User: What shape does this take?
Amino acid sequence: MLGKILIGVAGVLVLFVAVVATRPSAYHVERKLAVAAPAALVFGVLNDLHQFAGVLVLFGSPLEKLEPNMQKTFEGPAAGVGQSYSWSGKEVGTGKLTIEESVPGQKVGMKLEFVEPMESTATCALTLAGTPTGSFVTWSMDGNHNFIGKAFGMFMDMDNMLGADIEKGLAQLKTVAEGKQVATAAAGAAQADADKAAAEE
Assistant: This one.
């Protein structure tokens, strides 16, 4: 009896492995959002990981808020291609984000590497398009699942799971960029008033 049970379990495991092996490894997740700030201003946030780190969402929460005391390191230039942001902590695991492509006012491409809790690599592309009221941001993520990732995908909707993080990240980006736009507009108005007052004296 026990032998039959073990054979049955082994058969189920073999079938499961076979099914997982046939699942596609590549994935693509994409989300879009309108931002009431010009593309040049939004690009400035994306192109500087010191600023972008504040809008990066992983595991359902902003990375910087998920574990405020995590170890983090910025390397490379002040902004643009070659700049990297590494983090390590109990809650956030270990990972690294590196800017690999930078087209002023149009696009920033990044490489996202996870070391722990599960090793994986993905590419992120954030593209910008100007609109009459500001800009339109498209955030996409592409990568390949390993066996564990494929198995996990059988029980979880990866588009919804990863897409939720991207949506929250876009919302964070919108808040930061629009806040900067308001501050810039206020500073410009104040300067205009000061210039006008000076001219009238």
